[in-house]
Design goal:
CATH superfamily: HIT-like
Strand content: 15-25%
Mean pLDDT: 92
Largest sheet: 5 strands, antiparallel
Radius of gyration: 17 Å
Order of helices and strands: HHEEEHEEH
Strand order of the largest sheet: 1-2-3-5-4
Shape: globular
Structural class: alpha+beta
CATH topology: HIT family, subunit A
Number of domains: 1
Number of helices: 4
CATH architecture: 2-Layer Sandwich
Distance between the termini: 38 Å
CATH class: Alpha Beta
Amino acid sequence: MSQRSECVFCAVVAGEAPAREILRTDKVVAFFPLEPVSPGHTLVVPRSHAPDIWSIDRETGHALMDATLEIAEAVRRVFPIDGLNVIQSNGEAATQSIRHLHIHVVPRQWGDAMDIGWPLKTDWSEEAMNTAQGKLRAVLGER
């Protein structure tokens, strides 16, 4: 069996798995996860199977972001929220549990149970940050 045929998000896109779909375009589908963390929590996925962000073309990336912006605005208009997280993870080390690219749009309220756990302080030296900056700028300058 191929990865695509085993992918729950591909099954949702194909209409073979139940989902509370809220948006469908020629490039993306958006739906509520089975266990949303808050009212309005939405997943935005490309219709074609792509395991991660490095597997999509720019056109699909633009379509994903356009749909994410559209959903973020709708969520703000429908639900009483204090904020919003847009989360996109790649690979197990980044907590990606389903190997189909997806973006979480998560409405937030003060005091909710969700904890991102962002570190308040890092141990990167100035030299390490400057080196990383130089390397990235060099690669970006190649295009």
